[in-house]
């Protein structure tokens, strides 16, 4: 009797994902300008061990051999991001042709290998000159992003099938401008919320430009189902969901910010209230950062929604014991870790069923939901090269298997999921954690830059070849 198989739909995209600052290195090569992550990681105490992305995986020099890793895996898609300061070192103005040519070669190399390029325009590396003018907290960055999009679309628009405008605007805004744990390292609630809105406005400005290319257009959000730790924490869990999920889903898919969160932020000093924030106002709540027409543009139809899923969020009522928590301004809610659940090296609970829960919720709550790509899913564990020269990462295999089975359940429940991109192709610079956390299918020995296939790479390659999991 053969084993049952959990196969994905025909034409399902199997991929791996990376981000420019995390792998490229060569931060001053060929005219690249500084980004906010160059500045932030050079700040004492900002990143574990003082690590920076100056060398990272040296992918800018080793890109061809790294594309061969993708061929070895058998993936049909590769999600990567462009470094804005490599293309427009000042954020606007003169184009750096050497940087643009690098990405032309990268896209061509993928197409030669029959791998679909999925290009992310912004994965957190804002050019530092734009941050010097206020960064995402100022509307001027919207026009700069539109200009950047025009340059990229003209150069690559005929060869990129999938465009992602932004990666995880929640992190860029609430963690970069709210908690200070990511670049640019600011701790200001109002600036975080304004940055979130301006990021969505930049996405809106990019969509019609990318519509003129031959590719499909989407955005990637990091989403997490929220659970109350006790029945008394239900309202806190709703607020956490409003901050982390609905604050971005609602404007994109409904054309409005969630009114309960606007009232909460206005009442807690997060944003200056404008018409409608306050008790019993009959019209929609709004805040001063939103201009006429913004939400109409933000909610323009998408070809797909990218979803990054890593863990579920468990919530208790009360002030966050960590004063620098990324959910500023205070929500009278904070995240906890249940004692009975396994954890990754990042301290995140391993809950594959949360992915199925999230997918089904999206289909239920958002009638305008477009098709979905899982643009990131993976885990960090304590990987090492064993005496036989291999990396036996069985924990990662179990993690990926559980999440792919959960995704299969969601598809069988009617959720339109078109592809899955494992995070990450290789170990890399893990932002504030530096090089202390390894997410890759390939182990990177940083002193020598040698890549070693982990056991998970071989397992994932078999999953791709079968278009699913054989139990």
Structural features, described:
It is built from 15 helices and 15 strands. The chain has an 8-stranded parallel beta barrel, surrounded by 5 helices. Strands 7-9-10 form a 3-stranded mixed beta sheet, covered by helices on one side. It has about 475 residues and is α/β, with parallel strands linked by helices. The protein is globular and about 60 Å long. It has one domain: Alpha-Beta Barrel (TIM Barrel), CATH 3.20.20. The two termini are about 10 Å apart.
Question: CATH top level?
Answer: Alpha Beta
- Name the CATH superfamily classification: Glycosidases
Strand order of the largest sheet: 2-3-4-5-6-8-11-12
What separation lies between the terminal Cα atoms? 12 Å
Helix proportion: 25-40%
- What is the tally of helical segments? 15
Unreliable stretches, pLDDT < 50, 5 or more residues? 272-285
Largest sheet: 8 strands, parallel, barrel
Shape by Cα distribution: globular
Total beta strands: 15
CATH-derived architecture = Alpha-Beta Barrel
Q: How many structural units, i.e. domains? A: 1
> Which percent range describes the beta-strand content?
15-25%
Radius of gyration: 21 Å
Family: Belongs to the glycosyl hydrolase 1 family.
GO molecular function: hydrolase activity, acting on glycosyl bonds
Pfam families: Glyco_hydro_1
EC number: 3.2.1.21
